[in-house]
Amino acid sequence: MQEHRRYCSQLLVLLVLFIISLYVVPILGKNGNGLIEVDVGVILDADDHMVGKVSQTCISMALEDFYALNQNHSTTRIVLHKRDSKGDVVEAASAAIDLLKNVQVQALLGPQRSSEAEFVIDIGNKTQVPIISQATSPSLSPADNPYFIRGAQNGSSQVESLTAIVQAFGWREVVLIYEDTDYGRGVVPFLTNSFLGISTQVRYQSVLSLSASDDHILKELYKLMTMQTRVFVVHMLPFMASRFFTKVKQAEMMNTGYAWIITDGLTSLLDSMDPTIINSMQGVIGVKPYVPKTSQLENFKVRWKKRFRQENPDVDIFEMNVFGLWAYDSVIALAIAVGRSGIDASKFKKLHAKENLTDLAAIGISEMGPRLLQSLQNIEFNGLSGKFHLLNGQLQPSSFQIVNVIGKGDRGIGFWTRKYGISKNLCLPISKNYSTNKDDLGAIIWPGESNVVPKGWEMPIGEAKLRVGVPIKTNFKEMVSVRRDPQTNAVIATGFCIDVFKEVMDHYLPYAVPYEFLPFETPDGKSAGSYNDLLYQIFLGLKFCVHLQNYDAVVGDVTILSNRSRFVDFTLPYTEAGVAMIVPFKDDDRKNAWIFMKPLKMDLWFTTGFFFVFTGFVVWVVEHRVNEEFRGPPGKQVGMIFWFSFSTLVFAHKEKLTSNLSRFVVIVWVFVVLVLTSSYTASLTSMLTVQKLKPSITDIRDLIQRKEYVGYPDGSFVEGLLKNKAFDTSKLKNYSTLEQFDEALSKGSKNGGVAAIFQGLPHVNLFLSNPKYCAKYTMVGPIFNTAGLGFAFPKGSPLVPDVSRAVLNVTGQDVMTRIKEKWLGEEATCAEQDGAKVISDSLTLDSFKGLFIVAAVASFSALILFLSIFLYENWETLASHDSSIREKLIAVAKTFHEEKDNSSDASKRKPATGEGMAVPATTTADCPQSPATSDSQLAEWVFSHDEGLSTIETGTPIHETIEIVESSEER
């Protein structure tokens, strides 16, 4: 038993020792002090690159500061293993493999160059080791590389601040200049799209290789000088930028009128550049991430300078930069993540044994990498660089500071934030809106020590004047005309369009632009083509960088059209818009034998006739049973229907109406007739006494349906509009002069001329203002809509917005009226057209709808009321069950045809009876009744009072009673 117990005790001790060997010994680490050592690799370009040197010192100091503050709480300690990439991609990749394979590091800091980081990040993805790098190229994304942690701001985060600067100064064109590296190319697409969002065009992109010679750089700069654009955005690192700006100064492109903007990669490192390079960059504007000034940062800078000077005694120029601060904060973030992740001494999990494994495959997969990545991806604290916030592996951008290179360094002139835009300080009220106002920036010293904001473009070198193309015209010379001085051969341009252009350029532009007019002509002085040909020369010169006709703009009576705007940019129009047609006046209508029909339109004639008949019918229906005038043979009754209603036209009806219903209908109808006759009389009087000048054609569809010939100015865009409107091409004729217009319109379409001529509104007004033509022709339209006349410039020209604003100012001033009166004459100077009307004078049904509605309501109301009373009186007949429907209708019709008894006239007529009526009569011996006495005589004798019965005198004897029975049929 004792041996058994001793054996169990030994097994228990061995088990405890085994557990201690598994867990306790690794925890003690290599140095046996109880701390877990975590190996971390550092890959920096420490020999030649200033950012690498600065970051190397910052990384070492970051670990010392972190563990000095957390020595009593931290159970892990990071051990750094440094490697030098020597600025080479292959060296960086080799260093990463060495650290992962031989040292088995749990994380990698660096490299900082985007080209080097790309390869190392791929290695980190395969081995599941977090790679913390300050590579800023947008092409490297944590979203696409799960083990990539960007410890710097994305290069694309500065794009909005650069765009805000360009927008603040109203520059419409920029040139991008960048180095041919992953860093240089990465941000270009973002810049281009952002500039397009503010209607700023990237006119040209200049790409410079790191190995480019000085001569090549100068050649590229001279090429840029030949362009109009004077705003340049430079995206380079200090190595290439030092050479570039030295040559910019040499090419005299750092003078007045130029604007240079540099990105954050260069702006953040200005303090580390040679003073001679800074001297060649005077007046440059740049953006860089804003680092708030704190006492902690100032104390660190003092310690860092002392430490850096000890480690790099051979470096004369050195200053702390934001990349060093990001490196410092990245190490702090890594140390926090290591402590939170609970990392142990586990290393790499080897892959299944295979033959001929590569170095990368032999490394395996880190067991602690995923846990460390999870702790590192989302971390936030206040670091030396400000708020250091990693979100999904990406450092979140902060505010940007806008600086101006002056003297030996840069000077802050403002800030940009995503919420407020450009501002002079960061302490802003919550209610402030986003702004890109240049007045929110401090004073800027531009290149050439100028205080004037560059307008963003200049005339190219060797060309002191804007070359303005002018068309050669044979007609409408009041619009534009070109001739040469016989002595000096100088071009003299005149006309309405020319004067407007001169006014705009000379008095309303905010800057001076010298210009000269060049005619679009052949060597023999004739027109070199149509307006489309003239405009296309601008496009060809811009596209192929040659000037076939040496034009920078086109001025003339050029209409703004959508198809033309594909090749050139137009300013805002300075004249009215549209295309109208010129047509002759009609002959005088007073010679027309049927002019009496003209006052009323046919629809009004027919409606009036219908109501005449309908009103007569309603009156006949109401009066037929009670009025002797409306009874008789059928022919008489039909004639009465027409006669009575039409007699109201002259108020000559002699028939007396007995029914109040018919009287109401006639009263309303007489009022309608009164209004109609008065209107007809007024219209006819106007037609007979006043001459009306009416166009012969008022609708373009009439021209198409009748297949009339129509005209248009030679070389005008109107030809295309007419073809699009389905005009037969064989029916189109072109003319060159106003005399030809007059001759063609006078002949007419059937005599070898045209029925109408189509032209733009400014030209139509000019033609009709001529006393020779205003009495013969008139304008109809506008028929087609156009944008009016405008000035043409090359696509994307920076002059277009400024000239457009100037055009608005000119058109709103009295000077425009004076120019019009000078060349186009005063409006409405043709007295013959004072009575001209484009619309017909005939009265339409629409003007009398209300009257006819009233008449209809009155007539129908009277008719319905009459029928209701009539049917009510004959309801017994209609409700009878002894007769068929046909018999009922016949009985009702027979009743309607019969004359109705009117009790008020009983004293004047025989009593109508259907029943027998007893009448007392007296006979005397002295006066016996004669058998020959008529019924009427008897009635007169018997009915002596209003009651219809005679009174018998008192005492008169009654000998007999006579019963008189009389039927209506006997009457």
TrEMBL record:
Family: Belongs to the glutamate-gated ion channel (TC 1.A.10.1) family.
Single GO MF annotation: ligand-gated monoatomic ion channel activity
Quaternary structure, from the entry: May form heteromers.
InterPro entries assigned to the protein according to its UniProt record, in alphabetical order: ANF_lig-bd_rcpt (IPR001828), GABAb_receptor_plant_PBP1 (IPR044440), Ionotropic_Glu_rcpt (IPR015683), Iontro_rcpt_C (IPR001320), Iontropic_Glu_rcpt_pln (IPR017103), Peripla_BP_I (IPR028082)
Taxonomy of the source species: Eukaryota, Viridiplantae, Streptophyta, Embryophyta, Tracheophyta
Subcellular location: Membrane
Protein name in the entry: Glutamate receptor
A cellular component term, taken from the record's GO annotations: membrane
Organism of provenance: Rhododendron griersonianum
UniProt biased composition (Polar residues): 921-936
Disulphide bonds in the chain: C774-C830
Alphabetical keyword list: Disulfide bond, Glycoprotein, Ion channel, Ion transport, Ligand-gated ion channel, Membrane, Receptor, Signal, Transmembrane, Transmembrane helix, Transport
Source domain of life: Eukaryota
Domain Ionotropic glutamate receptor C-terminal residue range list: 465-826
Function summary: Glutamate-gated receptor that probably acts as non-selective cation channel.
Database matches in CDD domains: GluR_Plant, PBP1_GABAb_receptor_plant
Region listing for Disordered, in residue ranges: 900-936
Residue spans crossing the bilayer: 12-29, 604-622, 664-682, 850-872
Topology with respect to the bilayer: Multi-pass membrane protein
